[in-house]
Amino acid sequence: MGRKEKNIIARRLLHSYLSSIISIALVLLLIGIFGILAVNAGAVQNYFKENVKVSAILKESVGEREAMELQELLNAHKAIKATHYISKEQGTREMQQMLGEDFLEAFDSNPIPISIEINLKAEYFHPDSIRNLSQQLQENPQIEEMAYQESLLELLNNNMERIAWFFMVFIALLMFISFVLINNTVRLNVYSKRFSIYTMRLVGAKRSFIRAPFLVKSLFQGMMSGLLAALALLGILYLVRNEFEQMFTIFNMELVAMVLGGIVVLGALICLVCTFFVVNRMVSLTNDELYY
């Protein structure tokens, strides 16, 4: 065989090997993306729950000092995470943005009361809990009424549960599809060496001896694919951070690091398992089956 033919074969083998690594890396990248979303699903849910606001509208007779004292009292409540004081002036500016600059012309005096916006803790984000808390707070003589969108709270609460189930089912399905795709990629790589496997078997090589080089190669291939996927995922996270920096205050970076490491381990593990079973299958092929 001439040098030119050897170079052509070497390039084809290299191209096939790189194609396999890239194919497996793309599958692992998908797993990594949804894995990060899955492990941080609870934190994302809590973020949305704790950013829904309930407004305590105070009576017109309540002054600024009394409102500040009430705010301190609310901050000490076990169900409340944070409060935000809305003065008459700030409330008026917000209403002007919504209704126009001249909305006060219809009134003899400024009707906008002092209010306190309340952010609840995630564990108390439930329509019944919010309803009970509102009734409890409304007994305070300084509070005129509690304002919140009950239908929005119920919709958000129900959708959060559905999204969590969707992620669980989708990731399980993605894992199955990933295993099938990686298994097919490994199978094609090993199948191209079936004649070498058959020759080794003819000279009396044991299965463990035949499997060993394939397992080592698949381990390296899986780790390289995992590292490539992890690097690509880091690049995506960097781009997301530049556009949506707020998300990185929600994500648990330790869990993100675990997912990145898990991608590498998963790539190596799946490749090893697939190679083990595929090589065993190839070792058992008869002479006639080698050509079909």
How many strands, which pairing sense, and closed or not: the largest β-sheet? Answer: 4 strands, antiparallel
C-alpha Rg, in Å? Answer: 31 Å
The succession of helices and strands, N to C, reads HHEHEHEHEHHHHH
Total strands: the figure is 4
- Beta-strand share of residues: 5-15%
Helicity, as a percent range: over 70%
Integer average pLDDT: 77
Q: Compute the number of helices.
A: 10
The poorly predicted ranges are none
Q: Quaternary status of these chains?
A: single chain
Q: In terms of structural class, how would the helical and strand content be classed?
A: alpha+beta
Label the overall shape. Answer: rod-shaped
The end-to-end distance, rounded to whole angstroms, is 27 Å
Strand order of the largest sheet: 2-3-1-4
Features:
71% helix; four-stranded antiparallel sheet; 292 residues; alpha+beta; rod-shaped; 10 helices
Q: How would you sum up this structure, described in words?
A:
There is one protein chain. With 292 residues, the chain is of the alpha+beta class. Helix 8 packs antiparallel against helix 10. It has helices at 3-39, 41-50, 64-75, 88-99, 127-138, 150-191, 194-202, 207-243, 247-250, 253-283; strands spanning 53-58, 80-86, 115-120, 143-147. The protein contains ten helices and four strands. The model has no long low-confidence stretch (mean pLDDT 77). It has a four-stranded antiparallel β-sheet.
